[in-house]
Give the backbone structure.
Amino acid sequence: SRVPLVCQHWHYKNEGACNIILTYCGPDSDVQLRGHVLRIRKQRAKSSGHVHQELHEYEFVCNVMRDLVGPRYVHPGVPIHVTPSFLQEVQEMTLPLRPANRIDASVDTSAPYAFLIPDLSLFTPTTATTPPHTICMELKPKWGFKPIRDHPHISTDTAVKSTTCRYCMHQYLKASDGAVKHISEYCPLDLYSGDPDRVQRALQAMFMHPQNNLKIYIDGELSFTGGLGGRQASNHASLDELDSKLAAILQVAPHSSPETLPPTVSGVIHAIHSILGQEPVLHNLQTAQMMDVYDVGGIIHLFNRAVQERMFDGDDVTDLRFVALKGSPSVVPVASGHGEASLQDKDKPPIAPPAHIHPSLQNMPRGEVLRTLQCFLSAATAKDCSVMIALRPRIL
């Protein structure tokens, strides 16, 4: 798609490790762009050599992740052509606004495409008038399961991963490295559990020590987060600021206490808790994550074998996500109608992912090797997804 883009009509919103996000701030009369964000690729240390790598990744989201997580929950957007001059302007415009720990990776001015995506931190405006207030909570749940005990591909040296939450272990590692000042009480296993008390505890813990697991947007503007790395010593000050903003919207008196969450924040948590109890999005994410049945201890052997036997073209492991999209007879992971992961190809009905008892990795058929690697990559993607939930104040 070719859409005229003017750098001055875009404002820096946020960024991750791989992309910068701009939000549209131009004329409301441009209905094609109003209410959207633009996702622009950052320069990468490694490239697989694909001329249109962005389009391959777009196909992966559309054809794999959208089916796994659910079409209602995945918004791939649309690819649009961008010019080097526009991207250079974006680089210069955003540089003073970007976090210091992110500026090492600049905008990739050679990228042929960016992606126009609905701004999920705002309700889609239906008229040119100012939309009502929107409060949006962005969660990054992380891994929602532990490998089974006595996993055949987990060594005794790493057996702790079968008994202890991976995220919780990383909290202690980050604390020992000085990356975080306080160990968060958030545990992904609580959030994914479906138990109301445990889900409530997980959401409250996110607010007390958000680190990079929580962002709150008010009317599209980032208003609360722990920041990348969570280095801030305390979140009480920013919680007070968030409380003041929410209180102004809800027309209630602000409340400050270093011991408890403000009532306004508790109201947001209550609303999010209710929504997560009604929607299967966390169940779908967890099911997709559990397509990693071999653990990295088994996957590394399959990957080395795939490279040695030249089972796929390219130099990057992520190329395997696109093997089936390029006509390989290997399979692509999809989701069944009940949100449970399954695998299918053009000639066979859906079958379940491989059981925990497998034939030896050395003798695994070629198609099964590629299928298993694809499942692992899909699972890895699901482990790092964010969930965005937007609220209108009247439901709090």
In short: The chain is about 35% helix and 15% strand. Confidence is low (pLDDT under 50) at residues 228-234, 324-358.
